[in-house]
Amino acid sequence: MRKQLEQLARMKEPEARSRLIRALVAEYARSDGQEPSDTERDLFSMIVLSVFDQLDRSARYELVVRLAKTDRISTALADRLAREDYELSEPVIECSPMISQDTLRAISKAGSTRQKMSVTHRPDLSEEITDTLIARSPRPIVHSLLSNLQAPISVKANLALLIFANTEADILGGMAQRALLDPEFLETQMDILEAGCPLIPKAFENALRKGELERLAKDIGTRGEGMDITIDGVTYSRHEASVQIASGELSFDAILLTLCKERRFDAAAWLIGRKIRMEHSVVLETLKSDSDIALMMLLLEAEVSEATYKDMMRERCAWQDRNARIIPDLVQRYKSESRRRKAATERALQQKQQAAQAAPPMQDATVQVLLPLDIALA
Fold first, then answer.
1. Taking the model in full, what pTM does it have?
2. Pfam families from the xrefs (predicted)?
3. Average pLDDT for residues 47-64, to the nearest whole number?
């Protein structure tokens, strides 16, 4: 075998390169059950990468079939294989323990639907990846994530799912099914419910409170595809989704703006209230009122960005049937006040640090206990 490999290595033809790599892959994959050392793995991967562009498809296929699902290749080689066409890259994207988070992140943001679907099947997803997939992907991707019990669903992702579930029967059914099988997911739903979130659909709330999640999931699952469903007096669609998360991300601002675009100002008030520790009824009254300055102070407290504030004012003016000509002046004032607050905060932080250096540490008199929901929205 060694002589054969040496002979192939001396040949310059592309076909010889491919034959050499196929032989190396076969020998390396066997290894008599012994795991390669880090040095052997890196050396093998470096050799393959150095001639990768010269390999024919059969050699690349051999590499994927034998090694893509193992830890016997380097991260650099796994990432290179993930850039191949889908037929070759699928097992790498779905199963490779060596693929980098950067590559998974890039696929989640801008990959094809098939690539994203492969990502949803992985057992080692991070909240960042699932957040991105939920915010940016077609609904089949979201359904697949709900079915993968090892895929973490963050609080913000839960809020996005609830936004979808208000009008989409399949998302509602998927959430009910997940809550049946995943105690942690169920606990998050109960936390959101007990926090008084107005986004929870009535059918889901009843199922959570009465322990009827299985009935809800089956009821939705047995209805014909494409048929609208009426549950507890509310009609849910089975057609293609129309609600999309603003800016394709699950930040506080994006969720807030999505709620405003959907005219869910009750839920927007709840979201703001949770962040700034204020009764959401008070926030809602401010949203409904003509007091632009009071609302500005609330949104500054919630650290809403200037761009989001501008878009919110557009939605609010349309909701209240007000003239939008007031918006530029409001935005300019918001910018000025936001910068003033940031400067004041920085000065206060510097003063606090200086005081801490000059005086012995003191125990805070009070400790604020935050719920996981509130920490996630901070």
1. 0.82
2. DUF2336
3. 84
